[in-house]
């Protein structure tokens, strides 16, 4: 059996893939419009303050969690809350927020670069702050100069969690 790899065949194949994607989006949009609210839980709130306690050291799984975090932010906005988010990287996650991937397994390098792009996108949003624990970064021999731009090195994220909870942030573990 032979396959036609002509430009016309490729264009038709791409057209069908595009139409299939549009169909899937069209089917998904009504589901998003019908997404239930969280009225009881957020009654009386004007802001949503979440501290994401990030320890997950697997870049692919962390990217997937960041997608859910972004959806959470969008849900807050959709329901009239002003989102405030702090990301505290500790444990294995602290090694993922370094600019260089030299200290990581080579197999993870592509995923880590995609993770860095996602973190940069999140940093561009209002009311987002990111910090990394110096106790955890020590394991990877990383200092402030090694971290991605916009990620602040702090002494101890356990103290950060304590302090931010006193300021009204709810802590959600990402592990």
Automatic annotation (TrEMBL):
InterPro entries: DsrEFH-like. SUPFAM superfamilies: DsrEFH-like. It comes from the Bacteria. This is Sulfur reduction protein DsrE.
């Amino acid at each position: 059996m032979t396959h036609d790899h002509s430009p016309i065949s490729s264009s038709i194949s791409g057209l069908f893939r595009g139409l299939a994607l549009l169909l899937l989006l069209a089917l998904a949009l009504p589901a998003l419009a019908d997404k239930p609210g969280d009225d009881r839980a957020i009654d009386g709130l004007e802001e949503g303050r979440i501290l994401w306690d990030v320890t997950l050291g697997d870049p692919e799984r962390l990217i997937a969690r960041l997608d859910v975090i972004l959806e959470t932010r969008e849900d807050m906005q959709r329901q009239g809350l002003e989102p405030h988010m702090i990301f505290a990287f500790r444990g294995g996650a602290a090694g993922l927020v370094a600019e260089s991937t030299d200290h990581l397994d080579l197999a993870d390098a592509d995923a880590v670069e995609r993770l860095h792009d996602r973190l940069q996108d999140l940093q561009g949003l209002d009311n987002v702050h990111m910090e990394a624990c110096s106790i955890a970064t020590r394991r990877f021999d990383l200092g402030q100069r090694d971290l991605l731009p916009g990620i602040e090195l702090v002494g101890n994220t356990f103290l950060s969690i304590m302090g931010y909870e006193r300021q009204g942030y709810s802590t959600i573990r990402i592990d």
